[in-house]
């Protein structure tokens, strides 16, 4: 096998590989000789099948395997002998077209192919001694706790049937039949449905048209499904519902006491407040961590400037762009609705993709140099958390991850990233600043600007 480097530009490398016909023949013969002792063919004793007969029966399939093994061997040879770290899998291009490939498969011609690849950039880790970031924290106030407890009580309060008209805040129990163009549609019929008036949980206009209704009354409700409704066959269409009001119930007074706590599995109200305060505190800490990480990544981004593998950037940009266009399509919006153009949006999101790739490579190198490891126990804990997200399908989800190493590896990357971030935080100055809850959660929805550092490079 002859391997010759034909291109070295920036992070791109290209190699020409030639496997002479004589070597192809030698490899094919060796594989057939091994096969001779394993196959059973009528008319021949075990191990006595002539190679010529084996070649006639299995030659092409065995040669295809020989070629694939040669490609894999060439890739390993190129990487090992040149000490390369690949950004993505190499691209193989068979030279000479189909006719030349056919000759090679018959061992009547040389096998020529090129291996094109991109390597990871080499860069020195920056000194972070001058980096100072702020960890913004918020304390759980009595008002935060009271609001949370009150919300829990309201969401779990009881209702009692009443006479008279339904008012905002009441619950009406209804049967309904929906039609579009006088034709009943799938999912438009239901019985004993509870509608909390003023909750905004039904199609816009549905709840409002039940105000003033009484038990036993029949009403026609006319609504239009939102343009971004989940079912495409209903989105944007006008519908008429025949509604029968079966009961009208008024909410009972909200009572915050030990009985409420027991309904949540707590001994008394004091224990419930402790648990809720602790849960709010965990939410605050998680948000504080997100902001701290974002500020750290912003600081890291100013420290590095090096060439990026275009393949990784394209891969990241594709993922980001598909998400952006998917959300626009789902919400029936255009780039003009967002006060931008597709060209400007592409440029903006490409910068985001470049940032993610750059920071991903930085975190990967920091983690490698610090010898940061992710244990199997940590991966399994992450898998347990993932399984909990699919109640009723736990076994199927567990088996899926156990049978798919790549899927399981996806659980490892975020753990590696968080441990690496912790390692970097130990090297910089972190100053705590107490702020309000409102400020802590401000702009949290602006996720597109958050540097979610991709750690694909860890696997390279």
TrEMBL record:
<dbReference type="InterPro" id="IPR037041">
    <property type="entry name" value="Trigger_fac_C_sf"/>
</dbReference>
<dbReference type="Pfam" id="PF05698">
    <property type="entry name" value="Trigger_C"/>
</dbReference>
<dbReference type="GO" id="GO:0043335">
    <property type="term" value="P:protein unfolding"/>
</dbReference>
<comment type="function">
    <text>Involved in protein export. Acts as a chaperone by maintaining the newly synthesized protein in an open conformation. Functions as a peptidyl-prolyl cis-trans isomerase.</text>
</comment>
<dbReference type="InterPro" id="IPR005215">
    <property type="entry name" value="Trig_fac"/>
</dbReference>
<dbReference type="InterPro" id="IPR008881">
    <property type="entry name" value="Trigger_fac_ribosome-bd_bac"/>
</dbReference>
<feature type="region of interest" description="Disordered">
    <location>
        <begin position="439"/>
        <end position="460"/>
    </location>
</feature>
<comment type="similarity">
    <text>Belongs to the FKBP-type PPIase family. Tig subfamily.</text>
</comment>
<dbReference type="Pfam" id="PF05697">
    <property type="entry name" value="Trigger_N"/>
</dbReference>
<dbReference type="GO" id="GO:0051083">
    <property type="term" value="P:'de novo' cotranslational protein folding"/>
</dbReference>
<dbReference type="GO" id="GO:0051301">
    <property type="term" value="P:cell division"/>
</dbReference>
<keyword id="KW-0413">Isomerase</keyword>
<keyword id="KW-0131">Cell cycle</keyword>
<dbReference type="InterPro" id="IPR027304">
    <property type="entry name" value="Trigger_fact/SurA_dom_sf"/>
</dbReference>
<protein>
    <recommendedName>
        <fullName>Trigger factor</fullName>
        <ecNumber>5.2.1.8</ecNumber>
    </recommendedName>
</protein>
<dbReference type="GO" id="GO:0015031">
    <property type="term" value="P:protein transport"/>
</dbReference>
<dbReference type="InterPro" id="IPR001179">
    <property type="entry name" value="PPIase_FKBP_dom"/>
</dbReference>
<dbReference type="GO" id="GO:0044183">
    <property type="term" value="F:protein folding chaperone"/>
</dbReference>
<dbReference type="InterPro" id="IPR008880">
    <property type="entry name" value="Trigger_fac_C"/>
</dbReference>
<dbReference type="GO" id="GO:0043022">
    <property type="term" value="F:ribosome binding"/>
</dbReference>
<dbReference type="InterPro" id="IPR036611">
    <property type="entry name" value="Trigger_fac_ribosome-bd_sf"/>
</dbReference>
<dbReference type="Pfam" id="PF00254">
    <property type="entry name" value="FKBP_C"/>
</dbReference>
<keyword id="KW-0143">Chaperone</keyword>
<dbReference type="GO" id="GO:0003755">
    <property type="term" value="F:peptidyl-prolyl cis-trans isomerase activity"/>
</dbReference>
<keyword id="KW-0132">Cell division</keyword>
<dbReference type="GO" id="GO:0005737">
    <property type="term" value="C:cytoplasm"/>
</dbReference>
<keyword id="KW-0963">Cytoplasm</keyword>
<keyword id="KW-0697">Rotamase</keyword>
<dbReference type="InterPro" id="IPR046357">
    <property type="entry name" value="PPIase_dom_sf"/>
</dbReference>
<feature type="domain" description="PPIase FKBP-type">
    <location>
        <begin position="169"/>
        <end position="264"/>
    </location>
</feature>
């Amino acid at each position: 096998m002859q391997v010759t480097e034909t291109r070295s530009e920036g992070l791109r490398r290209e190699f020409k590989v030639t496997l002479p016909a004589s070597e192809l023949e030698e490899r094919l013969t060796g594989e057939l000789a091994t096969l001779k002792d394993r196959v059973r063919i009528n008319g021949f004793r075990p191990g006595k099948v002539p190679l010529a007969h084996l070649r006639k029966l299995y030659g092409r399939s065995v040669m295809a395997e020989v070629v694939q093994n040669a490609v894999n061997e060439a890739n390993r040879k190129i990487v090992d002998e040149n000490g390369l770290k690949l950004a993505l899998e190499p691209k193989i291009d068979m030279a000479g077209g189909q006719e030349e490939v056919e000759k090679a498969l018959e061992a009547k011609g040389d096998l020529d192919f090129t291996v094109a690849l991109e390597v990871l950039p080499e860069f020195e880790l920056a000194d972070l001694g001058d980096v100072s970031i702020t960890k913004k924290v918020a304390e759980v106030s009595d008002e935060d706790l009271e609001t949370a407890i009150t919300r829990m009580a309201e969401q779990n309060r009881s209702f009692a049937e009443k006479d008279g008209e339904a008012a905002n805040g009441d619950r009406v129990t209804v049967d309904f039949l929906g039609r579009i163009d006088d034709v009943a549609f799938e999912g438009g019929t239901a019985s004993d449905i509870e509608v909390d008036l003023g909750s905004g949980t039904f199609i816009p206009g549905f709840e409002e048209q039940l105000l003033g209704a009484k038990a036993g009354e029949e009403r026609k409700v006319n609504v239009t499904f939102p343009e971004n409704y989940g079912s495409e066959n209903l989105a944007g269409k006008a519908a008429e519902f025949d509604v029968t009001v079966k009961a009208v119930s008024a909410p009972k007074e909200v009572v915050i006491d030990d009985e409420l706590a027991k309904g949540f599995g707590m001994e008394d109200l004091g224990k419930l407040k402790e648990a809720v305060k602790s849960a709010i505190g965990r939410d605050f800490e998680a948000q504080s961590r997100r902001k701290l990480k974002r500020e750290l990544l912003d600081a890291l981004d100013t420290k590095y400037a090096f060439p990026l593998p275009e393949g990784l950037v394209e891969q990241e940009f594709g993922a980001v762009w598909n998400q952006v266009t998917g959300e626009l399509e789902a919400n029936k919006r255009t780039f003009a609705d967002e006060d931008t153009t597709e060209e400007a949006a592409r440029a903006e999101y490409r910068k985001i993709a470049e940032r993610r790739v750059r920071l991903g490579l930085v975190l990967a190198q920091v983690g490698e140099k610090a010898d940061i490891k992710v244990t199997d126990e940590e991966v399994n804990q992450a898998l347990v958390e993932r399984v909990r997200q699919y109640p009723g399908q736990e076994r199927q989800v567990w088996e899926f991850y156990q049978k798919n190493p790549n899927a399981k590896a996806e659980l490892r990357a975020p753990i590696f990233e968080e441990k690496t971030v912790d390692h970097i935080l130990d090297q910089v100055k972190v100053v705590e600043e107490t702020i309000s809850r409102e400020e802590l959660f401000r702009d949290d929805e602006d996720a597109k600007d958050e540097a979610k550092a991709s750690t694909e490079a860890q696997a390279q």
